[in-house]
Amino acid sequence: RVVVVGSANLDLVVTAPQLPRPGETVLGEDFRTVPGGKGANQAVAAARAGAACDFVGAVGDDAFGVQLRDSLAGSGVGVRGLRTVPGPSGVALIAVDRSAENFIVVAPGANGAVTDLGAEDRATIAGAEVLLLQLEVPLSTVVQAADWARAEGTTVVLNAAPAATLPVELLDLVDVLVVNEHEAATVAGAASADPAVLLDALLALVPRVVLTLGARGAAYADRRGLRLEIPAPRIEAVDTTAAGDAFTGALAVSWAERGGAISEETVAASLRWACAAGAACAQRPGASTALPERAAIDALHDA
Ligand code: ADP
């Protein structure tokens, strides 16, 4: 079982011939709403990858909240820990032009109200092998969830997205940090084009690090001295949006299926499978709609 404590947003996506400048109005083309938020995306990624998955978070008491709840439940994610709170749901206003350039404004809404974790949430965390966290809900909540997971023997996986520097009280509770190169540089406080340098800097902060490298795959390092580089499957990338969420969700599933243990013998296999999930997501257009089912992950993994 995987539990995600994190964000749910509705993405309001409009396409337009060009993006407006400040004060300008442009006539758009298509409009659609797509469930998003890193927390919800990773929960859906985990459920599609084949795990039982619970989501702890909040939506507003508006129509978007109903849509987000239905979408999570429809993907097979457990929503007993999903609160409905007064006020608006989290939304992302996204405009995309014909060259795929975009601008995005996120209004966190109800995600800011995920501050009241209680005994039921602790029990949900205790019943999971892996707790998956991101940084789109209040930091105090992320720390609380990680603290309970540590006390209950649940493995803590933190995807440090969006990029931020992290307080020691959180770093000390993390079993595995999952970051892309940009997030790695922010967390480490120093950029480098060399993955090995980033991994070394991050190992000073947490015991295990997974660094995603886009089309180049992923790298892993831990304090016991194990270092791995896993190439991504070669694919025709159509849209890499949410590839990181697909990767992280699948990685959590692979570890949950091994009882939350991250062993030297199996970590390479878990990473290879997660890379297949990221690549399978990148083969399809869209964000959460492109998160792959287990069969699609396995097919690319075995190809
Ligand atoms: P993020 O979207 O968070 O920046 P990445 O771009 O590193 O994350 O992608 C996450 C994972 O998805 C990569 O580690 C890789 O396994 C897979 N992936 C992403 N883009 C591609 C691609 N063009 N070809 C193959 N795999 C990809």
Automatic annotation (TrEMBL):
GO molecular function: ATP binding; metal ion binding; ribokinase activity
Catalytic activity, EC: 2.7.1.15
Domain Carbohydrate kinase PfkB: 1-293
Binding site for K(+): D239, T241, C281, R284, G286
InterPro entries cross-referenced by the UniProt entry: Carboh/pur_kinase_PfkB_CS (IPR002173), PfkB_dom (IPR011611), Ribo/fructo_kinase (IPR002139), Ribokinase (IPR011877), Ribokinase-like (IPR029056)
Reactions the enzyme catalyzes: D-ribose + ATP = D-ribose 5-phosphate + ADP + H(+)
Cofactor(s) needed: Mg(2+)
HAMAP family with a match to the protein in the record: Ribokinase (MF_01987)
Quaternary structure and partners: Homodimer.
Function: Catalyzes the phosphorylation of ribose at O-5 in a reaction requiring ATP and magnesium. The resulting D-ribose-5-phosphate can then be used either for sythesis of nucleotides, histidine, and tryptophan, or as a component of the pentose phosphate pathway.
Stated name of the protein: Ribokinase
